[in-house]
Amino acid sequence: MSTRPRIIVLFAALGVLGLLAVPVGATERPRTVKVTGPMSDSEGLHPDGAACSVSAGGCHAVAVGHAEFAGGVAGKASYILRIAPDVQPDGVHYTGSVHFDRVVTPCGTGALDIDFRGVYQAKTFDPATHTTTNAEKYKVRVGSGTGGLAGVTGAWTSIVRDHNDGKTDGRYSGSLTCPARR
C-alpha cells in the first residue's frame, strides 16, 4: 500500500473515532438556546411576614413557595415573593427571586438563581374560574450558576394564571446563553 492510501485510511479512522471533530484544546463557542415550557406552584405560596426598611423605602409583604418548571428549564425551585404597596393602573407590582438547587437545561445541570418582576392584574379576574392572569419577567442572576450552569445568562417571560388561593400555573418562553466551554 502506498503512502497516500495509508494517510487517507488514517484520517478516515480518526474521523470515525471523532478525534478530528474537536482538536485538543479547542473551545466550544457560546450558544443561545430557546427555552419554553410549563411551570406551576401546586402547593401555594405562604405568607412569611413583612419586611420594613427606611433604605428600601418602606414595607413589603413577604411570601414563600415552591414551583416546578418543565421543558427547557426543568427542576423544582423555591421562591421568595416581595409585594410592596406599588399599585399602578395595570395592577399590583411585585418582585421576587427563585432558587433552583438542581435544574437541568440545554446548557447543563447545576444550581441557579433567577430574579423576577411581575404584575398582578386584578382586571383580568375571570369569575367563572376564579383566576387572574399575571405577567412576569425573569432574569438569571449573573454569577449564580454552579456546576454545568456556571456562567449561564438568560431571560424569559411568563404568563401565569393565579388561582387566587396561592396556587399558580403558566408557561414561560425565552432563552439561555450557554458559555464557551473547553
Question: What report would you give on this structure?
Answer:
This protein is 8% helix and 61% strand. By secondary structure, the chain is mainly beta. The chain has a single domain (27-178), classed as Beta Barrel (AOC barrel-like). The chain has an 8-stranded antiparallel barrel with strand order 1-3-4-5-6-7-8-9. The protein starts with a helix and ends with a strand.
- Say how many strands there are: 9
**Mean pLDDT, as a whole number?**
82
> Whole-Å distance between the termini?
38 Å
- The figure for the number of domains is 1
What does the largest sheet look like? 8 strands, antiparallel, barrel
Morphology call: globular
Summary tags:
single chain; 8-stranded antiparallel beta barrel; 182 residues; mainly beta; AOC barrel-like
In a few lines, what is going on in this structure?
The chain has one helix spanning 3-16; strands at residues 31-41, 46-53, 58-69, 74-88, 91-105, 108-126, 131-140, 153-162, 168-178.
Topology readout:
Blueprint: H1 3-16, E1 31-41, E2 46-53, E3 58-69, E4 74-88, E5 91-105, E6 108-126, E7 131-140, E8 153-162, E9 168-178
Antiparallel strand pairs: 1-3, 1-9, 2-3, 3-4, 4-5, 5-6, 6-7, 7-8, 8-9
